[in-house]
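Key result, reporting period 2: structure in, sequence out.
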């Protein structure tokens, strides 16, 4: 299965993989050695915490490797006629407007206005044209959105 990513998203995931593989993995190994050397194993809570952290990091490394191995980098969308993965979309909700970049879930970051095409808003506006109005159910309830600009 191909994972479509923006160039920026691909590079961010590559950087995260590098940091986890080359920095965090070593830090956790050192922390694990120190924890083993400094405890008498009557209270293994700290050891369990380090092992849990190690398992999380190793799992994330595997996930990132899988995503990057199947990645296809999206250049600019081929069309600005319809909303597609990689499109910057301006939508209107009531009197407010919002601009989002529609991305793969692996690179979604609402704080940077990057929303997943699988999110409620992403699903609702996917393949829509300027002027289309859609209803979408969000955690705050149902709302109506209008696609104002694609580009």
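The corresponding designed sequence is given below.
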């Amino acid at each position: 299965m191909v994972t479509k990513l923006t160039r920026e998203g691909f590079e961010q995931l590559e950087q995260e993989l590098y940091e986890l593989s080359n920095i965090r993995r070593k830090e956790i190994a050192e922390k694990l050695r120190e924890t083993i050397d400094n405890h008498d194993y009557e209270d293994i809570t700290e050891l369990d915490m380090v092992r849990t952290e190690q398992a999380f990091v190793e799992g994330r490394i595997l996930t990132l490797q899988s995503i990057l191995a199947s990645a296809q980098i999206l250049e600019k969308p081929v069309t600005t006629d319809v909303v597609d993965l990689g499109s910057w979309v301006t939508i209107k909700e009531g009197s407010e407007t919002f601009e989002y970049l529609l991305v793969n879930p692996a690179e979604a970051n609402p704080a940077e206005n990057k929303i997943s095409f699988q999110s409620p808003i992403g699903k609702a506006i996917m393949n829509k044209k300027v002027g289309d109005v859609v209803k979408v159910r969000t955690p705050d309830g149902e709302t109506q959105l209008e696609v104002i600009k694609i580009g």
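The chain has a mean pLDDT of 91. Strands lie at 3-6, 71-74, 88-93, 96-103, 114-116, 133-138, 141-150. This case is discussed further under Risks and Mitigation.
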